[in-house]
Amino acid sequence: MFNIKQKAIALIENRVGKTGRVLGVRHWEPGGFVEIDLHLPDIDMYRFSSVQHIKCRVAPAQYRDYTIAGWDAETHTCTLYIHTAHAGAGSNWANNLEEGDEIVYLGVSGSVHSATERSTLLCLGDASTIGHYWALQQLAHSGRANLCGAIALDHEAYCGQLNDYLRMNVQPLLQTDAGGETVLLQWMQQELLKRQHEDVTVYVAGYSPAVATLRRQLRSLRYGGALVKAQAFWS
User: Fold this and answer.
1) pLDDT: is 149 or 117 the higher one?
2) Rounded to an integer, what distance in angstroms lies between the CA atom of residue 202 and that of residue 12?
3) Which of 157, 188, 209, 234 is the most buried (most CB within 10 A)?
4) For 47, how many CA atoms within 13 A lie in the half-sphere containing its CB?
């Protein structure tokens, strides 16, 4: 059965598969998070109006979606920010990439997250959302929105590196549970109280159970509907 699946995917790759080139790789200390610079000549990045995900082949017959961030439409370059602290085909692939390697991908598709016209975009998530919110900030900068928020991280060293490497107005928080649910809840409640008179859209992404809990709490605070945009990445 697996061989049949592999053959079917190989046919799809031959029809719609495209390639890119690794321009550089940077591993955060002490490991478990990696930045991958890519050249993707077949992607028209001028058309990006929402956060975009690229479906990369990470092993035979296996694909993972990663966010295209920090893109330059003129040079067809971008960066993937991948949390690799967990075991899996995607983490193994990302950790072993080197400059000059070729990658194979099936395509690019938009996510449910795009920059709204509201004045404040408040973002909440874990390490898996760093690239996602970096991309959202790039979209927000084309308008008048202000992006801020908090990201829960699973290693103290990442907290400093997040501020050193990326110019994002987000507060790094050291998580105490999966997905940083507890620290994100505490931070969110305090922050929304301070911003109760602002025009706010709340973005929630990352660990599925944490996303669900944050959404429930937001509803209790009368944030719902178009005011909350949620997207789970992993469980």
Assistant:
1) 149
2) 37
3) 188
4) 6
* The total number of residues written for the chain in this structure: 235
**Helix, strand, coil shares, percent, the chain, to 5:** 35, 35, 30
Would you call 8 exposed, middle or buried from its count of C-beta atoms within 10 A (0-12, 13-18, 19+)?
exposed
Of all residues in the chain, what percent carry a pLDDT higher than 90?
Answer: 79
Condensed to tens digits (0 to 9), the pLDDT of residues 19-64 reads: 999 999 999 999 999 999 999 999 999 999 999 999 999 999 899 9
How confident is the model over 84-123, as pLDDT tens digits?
998 999 999 999 999 999 999 999 998 878 887 778 999 9
Q: How far apart are CA 100 and CA 21, in angstroms?
A: 6
The answer to whether 210 touches 184, Cβ cutoff 8 Å, is yes
Domains and CATH numbers, the chain: 2-110 (2.40.30.10), 120-234 (3.40.50.80)
Residue 192: CA count within 13 A, CB half-sphere:
23
Is-contact 232 207, C-beta < 8 A?
A: yes
Give pTM, 2 decimals.
Answer: 0.92
CA distance 51 to 40: 16
Token pair 């956060």 is found at 51
- Distance, C-alpha 151 to centroid of its chain: 11
Pair 229, 113: CB distance under 8 Å: yes
